[in-house]
Amino acid sequence: MELGRLVEPDRGISYGIVQPGKPVADGVPIARVSDVREGRINTEAPLRVARAIEAAYSRTRLRGGELLITIVGTVGETAIVPESLAGWNVARAIAVLPVRHEIGAYWVKLALCAPEVREIIQSRLNTTVQATLNLGDLAKLPITLPPRVDRERIAHILGALDDKIDLNRRMNEALEAMARAIFKDWFVYFGPTRAKLEGRAPYLAPEIWDLFPERLDDDDKPKGWVLAALDDFSMLNPESWSRSNYPEHVDYVDLSNTKWGTIEAPERHNKETAPSRAQRVLRNGDTIVGTVRPGNGSFALVGENGLTGSTGFAVLRPRRAQCREFVYLAATSPLNIERLSHLADGAAYPAVRPEIVYITEIARAGDEIMDAFHRTTASLIDRIEANKLEARTLAATRDLLLPKLMSGEVRMKDADRIVGDVP
To answer: Cα–Cα distance between 419 and 423 in angstroms, integer?
Structure first.
């Protein structure tokens, strides 16, 4: 059935605010294309528009439960609006689908991910300026619609995989927050030294607590510590492919599929079709930081070998394996990402040189404290990377089952068994 027939007739399919104007501190938050990733809506730093501007777009004012799909730029990303975002709106590059309750937004989300529907979307894109899917073509997309009982069973099976992926994501957010809190306490706030100065009780293991100086120096750093740059701990862009050694295939990591510490599905290209920017050889343990619009949060810790990164990244390779966590957390700290954003110049594509990332200043402790930091945070980072790999396995299983379940090639009882066998 055509997608346009599956939405509430009194609202229809609409796109959002065309000209949001300048940000307003107390304005209405809106979701942008960059906020819709991996089935979620990033709510950390929404653009807020003046209420007078938003008032003209009441048709796309969110109530909760709608399905969003990006239709400009990165086309085809979807997310279901949680009830907590009621009252938000969306940008022009996002279409709002108020799917009828008896059909279910999650079912339409699944159907839009089917390979044949993805192929139709790609064939209908207007790419004159940037990829755009118009609402007329969106409304005509064919949505597979089995009987309701079958839809519910398929949605339950695939939803179980999505729930596991979401659980891993939330676990990773908690683990990374812990690692960043330790980094900030030790190397930004100098918590142990300040606690000693104030006579407070130790809150670290004795063998670590005793490593921290008792006093601060005249520059408000722990006594004996020095200001250093990340080039003391890492090497910048140590490897790039050349014409003579370029591999037959590359798994390409770009700014668009790297967000806030996570590398989404790398794009497989052969030598002939690989983008010209696919040059950086990435290794397990590297930190990559996007140099174009660095405030967008295109950074991650590389957790595997065999990836090729864009020349739009600064690639920091630790000089010692024990520096992996320190380099990643220092280079991607909120303070440093904000610093890079302020230093970025250029009207169309504000950017910084990779060397600007490389010379990030940080207080340097002695090797004993650096090694203690590695021992304290390595297990957190290792668990995060393991969760990322597991989530990719889960997503691959979901994407494999989706078309087979919809076509009836795989029976639902067999899919239940497959899902049950996935960790």
So the answer is: 9
pLDDT at residue 420, rounded to an integer: 66
CB atoms within 10 A of CB 228: 15
Q: How many other C-beta atoms are found inside a 10 Å radius of the C-beta of residue 21? A: 13
**Is there a contact between 14 and 46 (Cβ–Cβ < 8 Å)?**
no
Same domain flag for 9 and 115: yes
Read off the pLDDT of residues 210-258 as tens digits, 9 standing for 90 and up. 999 999 999 999 999 999 999 999 999 889 998 889 999 999 999 988 8
Amino acid at 396: A
CB atoms within 10 A of CB 99: 22
The structure tokens listed for 225 are: 């510590």
- Highest-confidence range of 90-99, 111-120, 241-250, by mean pLDDT? 90-99
Q: Is residue 93 in a domain?
A: yes
Secondary element (H or E) of residue 341: helix 334-343
Instruction: Report if residue 323 sits inside a domain.
Output: yes
69 has which bridge partners? 78, 95
Please provide residue 93's backbone torsions phi and psi, each rounded to the nearest 5 degrees: -80, 5
Whether residue 263 is found in the same domain as residue 131: no
DSSP string of 169-191, one letter each residue:
HHHHHHHHHHHHHHHHHHHTS-H
Give the pLDDT confidence of 125-155 residue by residue, as tens digits: 988 878 999 999 999 999 999 999 989 999 9
pLDDT digits (tens, 9 = 90+) for 308-350: 999 999 999 999 999 999 999 999 999 999 999 999 998 778 9
- Residue 293 CB contacts under 8 Å (≥ 6 apart), including other chains: 255, 341, 344, 349, 350, 351
- The DSSP element (H or E) to which 404 belongs, if any, is helix 367-407
Contact partners, residue 173, CB within 8 Å, separation at least 6? none
Is 70 exceeded by the pLDDT of residue 386? yes
Structural domain that includes position 24:
3-143
Going by C-alpha positions, the residue among 347, 251, 346, 263 that lies closest to residue 297 is 263
> What does the alpha-carbon distance between residue 183 and residue 208 come to, in Å, rounded to a whole number?
14
The residue among 350, 357, 363, 203 whose CA lies nearest residue 288 is 357
**pLDDT at position 423:** 58
Asked whether the whole model's pTM tops 0.90, one would answer: no
Contact 319, 233 (CB under 8 A): yes
Domain assignment present for residue 410? The answer is no
pLDDT of residue 264: 81
Q: Are residues 44 and 138 in the same domain?
A: yes
Give the E-state strand segments of 21-125 in sequence order.
28-31, 36-37, 40-41, 47-49, 67-70, 78-80, 89-90, 94-97
